[in-house]
TrEMBL record:
Coiled coil: none annotated. It comes from Peribacillus simplex NBRC 15720 = DSM 1321. GO terms for biological process: spore germination. Residues 229-391 form the Spore germination GerAC-like C-terminal domain. Gene3D superfamilies: Nutrient germinant receptor protein C, domain 1 (6.20.190.10), Nutrient germinant receptor protein C, domain 3 (3.30.300.210). Keywords: Germination, Lipoprotein, Membrane, Palmitate, Signal. The keyword Lipoprotein applies. This is Spore gernimation protein GerC. One of its GO terms (cellular component) is membrane. Belongs to the GerABKC lipoprotein family. It comes from the Bacteria. Residues 23-198 form the Spore germination protein N-terminal domain. It is found in: Membrane. Its main location: membrane.
Length: 402
């Protein structure tokens, strides 16, 4: 008994001395990568761009910064994405480390060819978290986006990440999509994915625009901005939504948090309806053997701006504005849905999933040719808008201007 106890103690001591992270690496051995760009070359190879943090330049004041760029670009080509990453060590003194990845930019050419294969590495690699956002470089390569120096945020990847979050929250024309959400959409039968488009707007001399001088100017010649949503069928880009279609998508999928909508005043002019709360109840049904969708959209908001002569102190005026908002918004939703049905025949709204929830048996047959069924799917839309506040003043001072 005593011998067994002694052996147990020795085993515990041995385990204590052998514990630790088998794959532990020191920070000075890693190239912290916050943004990755994926492109396809003319000969079919992948061009991978890594935006790596320059630690000496992003440290706190007094830590020895030299005034150089806060990030460094490394690039490599390969028949696979993994091969390209490893090839970067031919130039980088540290191994590319993507655990803190914030943004993945995919060039439009690669997106149209298919993003499934290059995404396999990022979904499989144990060092990559799946909470980064994925966007598509509209009309250009991903490398063109990642090479632009940015203002306010020293690290461009942080700028891209934060701008997408703010834009989705305040404008609702963009959509922040994680890797898990993207993959779920690609394999779903009833809801296909969308990704936000991004562009580099470069004016004047390109060399100046892509240098440190870009962030030293009050009006930078090169700016990065998000655009509208890209539509995917499985893993291939098939087209782009316009702004109204993009905002309609966010409302239907309950991703709209806030936005502003211009509406017509009863006697001419414009007013602005600021959306503060939005909820969409999406239900599917089988009617007379055919699928249908019921959309009930409930919106609460404020009058944010008035450029017309209306009396906001009267309840009937508020009711008129609410009715105008409801009518115009319903027409916008109807037109946007029909355009997606006709132009792309791709269910990005999740109507198929709603039919599946309502009648799994019927969905089993419908999903076999859902693209065609989606194209002719009736969508019943109901919009209810409510104005909560009219701001800190009642009627506009424009009433007093003769």
């Amino acid at each position: 008994m005593k011998r067994n106890f002694t052996m147990l103690i020795m085993l515990i001591v041995f385990l204590l001395f052998t514990t630790g992270c088998w794959n532990r690496r020191e920070l000075n051995e890693l190239a912290i990568t916050l943004a990755i760009g994926l492109d396809i070359t003319k000969n079919g190879q992948y061009l991978v761009t890594a935006q790596v943090v320059n630690p000496a330049e992003v440290a706190g004041k007094g830590s020895g910064g030299t005034g150089n760029s806060p990030v460094i670009i490394y690039q490599a080509k390969g028949k696979t994405v993994f091969e390209a990453f490893r090839k970067m060590t031919k130039e980088s003194p540290r191994k590319i480390y993507p655990s803190h990845l914030r943004i993945l930019v995919i060039g439009e050419s690669l997106a149209r060819e298919g993003i499934g294969k290059p995404l396999d590495l990022l979904s499989r690699h144990w060092q990559v978290r799946s909470d980064f956002f994925t966007v598509v470089a509209k009309g250009m390569n991903a490398e063109d986006i990642l090479k632009v120096p940015t203002t306010i945020e020293k690290i461009p990847a942080n700028k891209l990440f934060s701008t997408l979050v703010v834009s989705e929250k305040e404008w609702a024309g963009t959509s922040a999509v994680t890797l898990d959400e993207l993959i779920a959409g690609m394999i779903s039968d009833g809801k296909k994915p969308v990704l936000t488009g991004i562009q580099a707007d470069i004016k004047g001399d390109k060399e100046t625009s892509l240098s440190k001088q870009n962030v030293e100017m009050i009006d930078p010649p090169a700016r990065i901005k998000y655009g509208n949503l890209a539509v995917f069928k499985k893993d291939k880009l098939v087209g782009w939504l316009d702004e109204k279609q993009s905002k309609t998508y966010n409302v239907i999928t309950n991703k709209e948090k806030s936005t502003v909508v211009n509406i017509a005043c009863p006697k001419g002019g414009k007013a602005v309806y600021e959306v503060k709360k939005s909820n969409t109840d999406l239900k599917g049904k089988i009617k007379n053997g055919k699928p249908e969708i019921d959309l009930n959209v409930t919106v609460e908001g404020n009058v944010g701006e008035v450029e017309c002569r209306i009396d906001l102190t009267k309840p009937e005026t508020i009711e008129k504005l609410e009715k105008i908002y409801e009518k115009e918004t319903k027409e916008m939703f109807k037109k946007a849905i029909e355009q997606v049905q006709v132009n792309y025949k791709v269910d990005i709204f999740g109507f198929g999933e709603a039919i599946h929830r309502a009648d799994p048996k019927a969905w089993k047959n419908l999903k076999k040719d859902w693209g065609k069924n989606f194209e002719n799917l009736p969508v019943n839309i109901k919009v209810q808008g409510e104005i909560r506040r009219v701001g800190t003043v009642g009627n506009s001072f424009l009433e007093k201007i003769k």
